[in-house]
Amino acid sequence: MAKITFDGIEVEVPDGTTILNAARQIGGGIVPPAMCYYTPLKGSGGKCRACLVKVSAGSAKDPRPMPKLVASCITTVQDGMVVENTINQQVMDVRKGIVEMLLINHPLDCPVCDQAGECSLQDFAFEHGVSTTRYEEERRTFEKIDIGPLIQLHMTRCILCYRCVYTADQLTPERVHGVLGRGDASEIGTYIENIIDNEFSGNVIDVCPVGALTDKTFRFKQRVWFTKPVNAHRDCKTDKCGGRVTLWYKGKDVLRVTARKDEYGEVKEWICNECRFDKKETSDWVLEGPAHINRASVIAQNHYELPVVNPQVIQDLPESTTRELERNPPLRLGGLN
Amino acid sequence: MGRKLLTEHINVEGINTFEVYRKHGGYRSVEKALKTMTPDEVVEEVKKSGLRGRGGAGFPTGMKWSFLAKPEGVPRYLVCNADESEPGTFKDRQLMSKLPHLLIEGMITGSYALGARTSYIYIRGELLYVLRILEKAIAEAYAAGFLGENILGSGYSLDLHVHPGAGAYICGEETALLESLEGKRGNPRNKPPFPAVQGLYARPTVVNNVETIAAVVPIINEGGDEYAKLGVGKSTGTKLISACGHLNKPGIYEIELGVPVEEFIYSDEYCGGIWKGRDLKAVVAGGSSVPILPKELILKNVAGENRLMTYESLSDGGFVTGTMLGSGGFIAMDETTCIVKNTWNFSRFYHHESCGQCSPCREGTGWMEKVLHRLEHGHGSMHDIDLLVSVAKQIEGNTICPLGEAAAWPVAAAVRHFRHEFEWHVTNPKEATAPGAAYRGKAVLA
């Protein structure tokens, strides 16, 4: 076990945990944002640089600070490590810069994008960005591509997190898409036009942090904030699919089916394409009740719950620290007020 | 002229063949190391020599070697980074094409020191003709018993392979190089783990520059202490400098570290001064990614002392008034050079070569290039100049690999020292964009 201090809050986590996951144990507004890291996907992370934090003491043995900001999603904790996130101005400034970099080639077409409302980039920009742009040049654009009858790829919106590539690598037998090209000409593609065809391909839609990969059976059907999430399950015969999903209702109609996600937008269990695309009748499912959504989001102000600091961590703290923390930004709920 | 340790015999006819090379004292270091020294003693000699990485970072080689993890029963690798593609740097190409056996000799001695049974030379894809020279030389070394099973009856065996890249600058970054060598897309890895623990095929690996490995040969032949006598302070030995730009005698010079920059530029022994009798304007001292310095600051530091060609002297003053020795790509620019155009040119290179993996570099390099293009073509505004500095700062230090910094440093330094010239492009666009136009005003020194 390793004890680390994150933004002044102590937390004990098993050795080998990353700083980001240690922060998630604490929860609340101090958790660094993650645009490319995805816990269920091995090897993901380190690319978007959104989660950079300052390590002001490396470990109890070697308390020197790390010279550069480190990506918290891939840096593992050391006993006695002291990490600064929201309390460090440099980190906040750099994060603003990262938002700017991710947005300069993003079309900002949220009003017509299906991901709006549950988009990681939208949330990230909303919390850390600035409202003006300094970028005057033409933005990078691509044609929309149908990769199979069920998924559409709109590269213009892509932030190259590589999540869909890892998903295809780790979930399905043969990956047919990958990153082509270099630098800002990189793109996700199948090289020679090809379709992604296997029973778990739909999961790339769930892992996509932006609206680059969308569900063609749901495109333009409804804004997500007008739909009501309900947890449900069915006895799915597909190997490795548990059949536990979230149904998104508008009135009596199931408009789309997704995997269940946690508060950080990470899929809890992968689901197969049959569950996702073919079973859109209430009679196909056993309903469990409304889905509990507690992620901070642009639309969370209305009907999603805001994230709170894990109460267990707070109980363990001396009262004086708790009082102090309540006045401090990390405890302000979600940073959305 | 100072001593030459690497290039002494470079002009001997047929030195690229095993026979001639051997006649001129070649492969002595292999005999000495394998017959009279233990691997640890070889590492110790390299440590004593004070040799520092010649690829750009200048990290002490002996120390790097001693960091190599040595778990039982796990193979280790020595990989030679011959992916020399930094604009302004062309020393390794010459060394390999003229003296292929020197590199091979260094690889054998180095591999022996590290306990590697298989070693690789990762060569830049554009240097295919050098690859053929190396392959021929390797075949000769196999035939002579210096490679393969049981070298010189010592019981030590080594296989050496040359592997070409596919034309990406980023594959000169050591972890991207290893990815590429494994047959994957050349994206730099997240560190840690460092290659010394998990490198090629997730095995402990040392990646060294061509010149670094070649320098092991004289170190073993003459002893680390002898080698350390050359040079100044912590910059020991000799260094190949590839000088280019507006010089009377551009070319590759093997210098003893510690030669004054002024002497290097102006003396007839080296570059012979600036061409056409013109005045020097600026110097990029160590390949395109190090900060550019105006004449006044490259010849003397802020304290008025002569700058020497050493790691320490060139970096005196940090990045405010100093630069780096880097890989030894010495680019001199005369008074007719347009710094804005030059910066745009460098920036275009980094934009083209960014791997696109992490966001600050992928988006930032392109952005800087576009702003510089605007400035150079007379469409810029004053706030574009500050924008450049700001974008460079947003990239620097926040990327996975050093390419981000390599792209940001030259831009930041050019604006720092030649801000007047950038402003001149904004205020007098017509004059500034005329063919051959160059600003003749003063540089900003501090």
Describe this entry's structure for a reader.
The complex is a heterodimer of chains A (337) and B (446). Chain A is of the alpha+beta class. Chain A folds into two domains: 2-99 and 306-331, Ubiquitin-like (UB roll) (Roll); 105-290, Alpha-Beta Plaits. Chain A has helices spanning 19-26, 89-104, 120-128, 163-171, 203-207, 273-278, 300-303, 311-316, 319-327; strands spanning 2-6, 9-13, 52-57, 70-71, 82-84, 145-146, 151-153, 178-180, 187-189, 213-215, 228-233, 244-250, 253-259, 286-290. The longest helix of chain A has 16 residues, at 89-104. Residues 302-308 and 328-337 of chain A have low confidence and may be disordered. Helices cover 43% and strands 12% of the residues of chain B. Chain B is built from 20 helices and eleven strands. The two termini of chain B are 34 Å apart. At the A-B interface, helix 2 of A face helix 15, helix 16 and helix 17 of B.
Mean pLDDT of chain A: 87
In round numbers, the mean pLDDT of chain B is: 95
Number of helices of chain A: 9
Q: What is the CATH class designation of the largest domain in chain B?
A: Alpha Beta
The helix/strand series of chain A, from N terminus to C terminus, equals: EEHEEEHHEEHEEHEEEEHEHHH
CATH architecture of the largest domain in chain A: 2-Layer Sandwich
Oligomer: heterodimer
User: How many domain regions of chain B?
Assistant: 3
Instruction: Give the low-confidence spans of chain A.
Output: 302-308, 328-337
CATH topology value of the largest domain in chain B: Rossmann fold
Strand content of chain B: 5-15%
Radius of gyration of chain A (Å): 20 Å
Family (chain B): Belongs to the complex I 51 kDa subunit family.
Function (chain B): NDH-1 shuttles electrons from NADH, via FMN and iron-sulfur (Fe-S) centers, to quinones in the respiratory chain.
EC number (chain B): 7.1.1.-
Pfam families (chain B): Complex1_51K (PF01512), NADH_4Fe-4S (PF10589), SLBB_2 (PF22461)
